[in-house]
Design goal:
The complex is a heterotrimer of chains A (371), B (582) and C (117). Chain A has 371 residues and is mainly α. Chain A has helices at 3-38, 54-63, 75-91, 119-140, 144-175, 180-186, 192-195, 197-210, 222-225, 235-260, 275-297, 303-334, 338-364; strands at 101-104, 107-110. Chain A starts with a helix and ends in a 7-residue tail after the last helix. Chain B has two domains: 7-123, Beta Polymerase, domain 2, CATH 3.30.460; 261-581, Cytochrome-c3 Hydrogenase, chain B (Orthogonal Bundle), CATH 1.10.645. Chain B is 37% helix and 15% strand. In chain C, α2 packs antiparallel against α4 (88-110). The model of chain C has no long low-confidence stretch (mean pLDDT 80). The chains are: A mainly alpha (371), B alpha+beta (582), C mainly alpha (117). Chains in contact: A-B, A-C, B-C.
Chain lengths: 371, 582, 117
């Protein structure tokens, strides 16, 4: 290992961080414009062509704003909390492959930071750390709204993390590996979303809850808790929470695309490896639009129903999906019958319909907060 | 046109000959009850005569007679004219009147208001605190001998504003010079607001934690929602006691937008009040104008021009439609859906406001009604716009909104079966308007006690029976459809002719007497109580604001529910702080 | 193993960004504190009582149940990787393992501990 290797990795790390930062900035622009279109408005279109300089203007504003540190907060934790929230959202991206590799001046440069053999384990563990940032922010603010927001978000995130973990299990079974690159390569024939559409859907729903997006944006429920856990934050520290949320959106969409939508795969990607990131980002933009669309159209689910939904519907459903996948794959393997393989999506969709029927029955019962 | 209120059909005097007398002052009606027997008479009126709805409680300071009078207006939810009875106390502190809160829970806030502004002490009221002003306020401003810090004259127009016939602005006067009178020992520089112990004590007293099973003994948290809160619809403040996320006790605190509408009204001349009513419920200035015009016309006993009646109805119904559209948008917004439905609702509202602008010159503060008619005729192109809206656009858009929203699972899940208000509870708390109708009581003033020309139209009173939030949401759509029906007929029937039965005038002559006029505003029963002594200014001017009285029910409805639902409830009651705080 | 060094490097790079941002805000932003700005936000009213209170115990039960199922998910990861080699036997084993936990979930559910307060 020579020194050029080190330089390469550090440059790569910086480039990936920069991509995520710019991605975050332009995701806000993308979201605002998309929301505006849906809401018969125009959206930001003044700063630069089509408002493209708006994110930069926002960033400059936030840097030059006064940062208030209220007198009653627990200072160390108060400053540490935004850092603890941002770092996991950035470093999640380390194991996501953007492509294979390409040659630059006779060097083979891989399009991923690390090729870790237990990539998915890494994802679950890092995703858990993000809870700390939010719960500590809520607690250290010494503010009732922030406290309630922190409690809500921690309970919500741990609840949906189970579902997320079990969705990972489905992807592992299908990909036969915990390595993200292996999982992508397994999808050369068929994207996993075709085999396990319900798994992808559950993953996506759990993702929405994990990144506190509508309709699961309880912790920051503006109408109830003013701003939730970041009520006392201002200036750059507030911007960091904002950044964490949007970066997590991007990264987790990248993970979803990698696990279920073929990652960087696409036509001619083997001939031109640089197409890999392009395909991945195209997929990410489409998945992000889904999140924005949901935000524009759906009201917020009430908090107790959200918890019930997580524990009583999604958790059993994701367990069932994992075992349906495992059984189907094994039966197809052992009995050498492709029929069992194709029964996986069918049985999964039936399981989903049963879950939906449960929800509907409950809605019709007009129950108070029970699902 | 304006038949005198036929309250004399109820013979209360022969029922209680010892302590009830008829009010025989010229222009006045109703009964005067001895205060010692007030509760007895009230209970009899409720149980024997079926006056189940307490419409309004207010006071009048008759300083010349050295009397303080409390005026009660009762109605039947089955319809028909109401009854008014009064009780008088000597004008010596403490002026004690028994509280009627045990007979009608809806007396709660209105009695507190009378205590706050007039200093009438309601004995037996469990929580008699100031409501619109703050604790520690000096005096009771609606008393006739009260003079505010900037006091100039009893009535407008103030002479100082017209020196030698020229106009000056009040802002030119420096407020902190010797023109301001403050109570003794009051230093503005080291002013400290009174502590709020009374509020928190009252919150603690009504807490559920003393009654319910509190197995684990966890701490309860007192949170103030508002005045600076995104979803309290302005500056309403609610002190909430929480156990986890469950509300165990709750007290609304209002008055942050208080400007003593009643007092300013007493200073103004009759016509000056008209633009001032716009500011009550600023979404529905047309409905507010309507209520005030109806009241004063009753007092003046003048007819309204035929064409103007139709114009009034058209404007009031358009106003109702835009109010309900905003309601639907903002309700869903408060449920957390990123503004999309509300922006779609605003799109339609803008078109209706265009019409208001065309007829009155203002989009929100219309100031359009005059005694005997309206101020301007509808221009021909605006008429065409109204027709297009009513016949094509609004029905289609209402259908579209219903199709998009009604079956949304999250919406249904959050609204259905939540905050059920049954009919008895609603009537007891004096709740009116769509909230009452959603609880299964078909009480709509346009049918129950028709005013203007509403008796000429064929429409149904929208009613739903579950009383939950989902019914409250659906009934707004029903009302929009009924309003469209009325509009269609009104546009067909509207005659040509003058738009005002009177000559244009700046000063009207109002004979002495009292009048209680009420209209069905989109938020509920909007009523004005005006007492005239023949001078250019009303002697007493009181607004019975539907949002304010509807808030009475919040406390009973919210205990034991989740904080997220509470926000939705505030949206559902459709309160406007301009009207609540007055 | 070397791959983990890259991950560590990336985390180091990731740490620079938020710390740099906070430092930039600290250096460039104005600082004019006063007691009213530093007051706790509670909709413009002076707060009463503590924010750090004893919260309802159900909250901790969620955490406990989470722990059980999170460990379960981690146990399932290696099981899922080696499923092909282990065969149907492993699936049956897995189902038994998960059903034991499901019984626990059902028990919590019936006890009403999965209701948010």
């Amino acid at each position: 290992m020579d020194w050029t290797m080190w330089v390469e990795w550090i440059v790569k790390g910086f480039v990936l961080c920069l991509i995520l930062l710019t991605g975050f900035a332009y995701l806000t622009w993308y979201e605002r414009r998309a929301l505006a279109r849906i809401q018969v408005r125009v959206g930001p279109n003044r700063a630069g062509y089509q408002g493209l300089l708006q994110p930069i203007a926002d960033a400059v504003k936030l840097i030059f704003k006064e940062e208030l540190t209220p007198g009653h907060v627990y200072k160390v934790v108060f400053i540490l909390a935004p850092v603890l929230t941002v770092v996991p959202s950035l470093v999640l991206a380390a194991v996501v492959p953007l492509g294979t590799s390409f040659n630059l001046f006779g060097r083979e440069i891989t399009l991923y930071v690390a090729d870790v053999n237990v990539g998915i384990l890494y994802l679950t563990s890092i995703a858990s750390i993000a809870v700390y940032g939010i719960v500590l922010a809520g607690w250290s603010s010494n503010n009732k709204y922030a406290m309630l927001g922190g409690i809500r978000s921690s309970a919500q995130m741990i609840s949906y993390e189970l579902t997320l973990g079990l969705s990972f299990v489905t992807a592992i079974i299908l990909g036969n590996s915990m390595n993200m690159i292996d999982i992508v390569n397994e999808q050369r024939g068929l994207w996993f979303v075709v085999i396990q559409p319900v798994g992808a859907l559950i993953f996506w729903i759990a993702t929405l809850a994990e990144v506190n997006r509508a309709p699961f944006d309880m912790p920051e429920a503006e109408q109830e808790l003013t701003a939730g856990y970041h009520a006392e934050y201002s200036g750059m520290k507030f911007a960091l929470f904002f950044m964490a949320e949007y970066q997590k959106m991007i990264v987790i969409s990248m993970i979803l695309a990698t696990l279920f939508f073929g990652g960087y795969l696409g036509p001619f990607v083997d001939q031109v490896p640089l197409l890999g990131p392009v395909y991945l980002f195209a997929k990410v933009i489409i998945l992000l639009f889904g999140m924005i669309w949901v935000r524009a159209t759906w009201p917020r689910i009430r908090y107790d129903r959200l918890m019930s939904f997580g524990w009583k519907i999604l958790l059993p459903l994701s367990l069932a999906i994992a075992f349906i996948t495992a059984t189907g794959i094994l039966l197809a393997d052992v009995l050498n019958n492709q029929l069992f393989f194709w029964s996986i999506p069918v049985v999964s969709i039936i399981a989903l319909l049963v879950a939906v029927a449960f929800i509907y029955r409950d809605l019709r019962r007009k129950s108070h907060g029970r699902i | 046109m304006t038949a005198p209120a036929s309250t004399t059909t109820i013979d209360l005097v022969s029922r209680f000959p010892e302590f009830v007398t008829a009010d025989t002052r010229p222009g006045f009606s109703g009964f005067i009850v001895k205060k010692e027997n007030l509760v007895e008479v009230a209970t009899a009126l409720r149980d024997e005569f079926n006056f189940d709805l307490l419409s309004s409680v207010t006071g009048v300071d008759y300083i010349a007679d050295n009397k303080m009078e409390v005026v009660y207006h009762l109605h039947r939810t089955t319809g028909g004219p109401g009854i008014v009875f009064k009780t008088q106390v000597d004008r010596v502190d403490p002026m004690e009147v028994p509280s009627l809160i045990d007979v009608w829970a809806g007396a709660d806030f209105q009695e507190r208001e009378a205590w706050d502004l007039l200093g009438i002490k309601f004995t037996g009221h469990p929580d008699l605190r100031r409501i619109l002003l703050w604790e520690g306020y000096e005096g009771h401003p609606l008393r006739k001998d009260y003079q505010e810090a900037f006091f100039e004259e009893e009535t407008k127009p103030f002479k100082s504003r017209w020196p030698e016939g020229h106009h000056t602005y009040a802002e030119f006067k420096n407020p902190f010079r010797d023109n301001i009178k403050l109570p003794e020992n009051f230093k503005l520089d080291n002013y400290q607001p009174e502590n709020e112990d009374q509020l928190y004590f009252s919150l603690e007293k009504s807490s559920m934690k003393h009654t319910s099973e509190n197995q684990m003994g966890t701490d309860h948290m007192v949170v103030n929602m508002g005045p600076h809160h995104p979803s309290t619809h302005g500056v309403l403040r609610v002190a909430v006691e929480l156990n986890g996320e469950t509300i165990t006790s709750l007290k609304p605190v209002m008055g942050y937008l208080h400007r003593n509408h009643d007092k300013i009204g007493e200073r103004n001349t009759y016509l000056q009040i008209m633009p001032f009513t716009d500011r009550l419920d600023y979404f529905n200035s047309m409905a507010n104008n309507f209520g005030y015009a109806v009241t004063v016309e009753k007092l003046m006993n003048i007819p309204v021009a035929e064409r103007a009646e139709y114009i009034r109805v058209i404007m009031a119904e358009l106003s109702r439609i835009q109010n309900h559209l905003i309601f639907i948008g903002m309700l869903i917004n408060d449920l957390g859906s990123m503004y999309t439905p509300s922006l779609y609702a605003f799109e339609e509202r803008e078109l209706i406001l265009d019409i208001f602008e065309a007829v009155s010159g203002a989009r929100m503060m219309c100031n359009y009604f005059r005694f005997g008619g309206v101020v301007r005729d509808i221009p021909a192109d605006a008429m065409q716009k109204i027709k297009d809206l009513v016949h094509d656009r609004l029905p289609a858009k209402t259908d579209e909104m219903e199709r998009f929203l009604n079956e949304n699972e999250v919406l249904v899940g959050r609204l259905k079966g939540v905050h059920v208000l049954n009919a008895e509870e609603a009537i007891r708390n004096s709740v009116t308007g769509p909230v009452l109708r959603a609880a299964g009581v078909p009480y709509d003033l346009r049918r129950a006690d028709p005013y203007s020309v509403y008796d000429r139209f064929d429409f149904d009173v929208a009613v739903r029976y579950n009383g939950d939030m989902y019914d409250n949401y659906l009934i707004r759509f029903d009302e929009i459809r009924q309003s469209l029906r009325i509009l269609e007929q009104a546009l067909k029937q509207i005659p040509e002719g003058p738009i005002n039965s009177q000559k244009p005038q700046y000063q009207v002559r109002v004979p002495a007497g009292e009048a209680y006029g009420r209209v069905e505003s989109p938020k509920g029963e909007l009523a004005f109580y005006v007492v005239s002594n023949g001078k250019p200014n009303p002697y007493r001017y009181h607004v019975r604001a539907p949002s304010f009285v509807n808030l009475t029910a919040v406390e009973t409805m919210c205990k034991g529910t989740k904080i997220a639902d509470f926000v939705a409830l505030l949206a559902m009651l459709d309160i406007v702080m301009g009207e609540v705080d007055r | 193993m070397s791959e983990w060094i890259y991950v560590a490097l990336f985390i180091a790079v990731g740490l620079i960004i938020p710390i740099g941002a906070i430092a930039a805000g600290f250096i460039l932003g104005p600082k004019k504190p006063n007691p009213i700005k530093e007051a706790t936000y509670e909709c413009g009213v002076e707060p009463v009582g503590e924010a750090w209170i004893q919260f309802k115990p159900q909250y901790y039960i969620f955490a406990l149940v989470f722990l059980v199922f999170d460990v379960e998910a981690v146990f399932l990861f290696p099981w899922a990787v080696k499923l092909g080699q282990l065969g149907l036997y492993a699936v049956v084993e897995g189902i038994i393992f998960v059903s034991i936990l499901i019984i626990g979930l059902v028990y919590t559910w019936r006890k009403g501990m999965l209701e948010w307060l």
